[in-house]
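User: For my dataset I need records formatted as: sequence, then structure tokens, nothing else. Please produce one.
Assistant:
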Amino acid sequence: MDDDQTLTPSARAAADRADRHFSTSSAREASDRGELGTWVAEFLASPGSDNALLAERLAGGDPVWFGPVRLPISELNRLAGPAGEPVLEVVEEDEWRDDVEDMKEKIDDGWEPAPMIVSYRDDQLVLEDGNHRTESLRQAGEEAVWSVVRFDTEEERDRFLAAHQDLPTA
């Protein structure tokens, strides 16, 4: 699962270090160096995300990465969430609520979460990693989130960008 869950103090400290290292600005720097795919893989393997299997899956093929870009939350299709919502992975309601509330409190205290990891599939933006972070930001009043987007081809990326020329980038 993505985002911090119940962590020991040492794991929480490692997650806090990862938060500082995996920011929107560090993603922009990686993008400028042509290393955004590496940034994504390292982020997904870090404490707090702890999702090396997802990193491996997203690295498959010859992906084209773009971002960070600010995407409207309303256009993101979540993969994880509480029962009763259109998601692939159901998270127990109490766990979902507690995690989202904890992150919202951190956001209210000035925490800036790492960009969301999104795939562009069948003309849809699929939220691969950051389901809790996105919901926390939505509850904090945000309408858009910083994201890094995976495309299968450059042509797919170019079509998306042509249709979304007004999206802010970092």
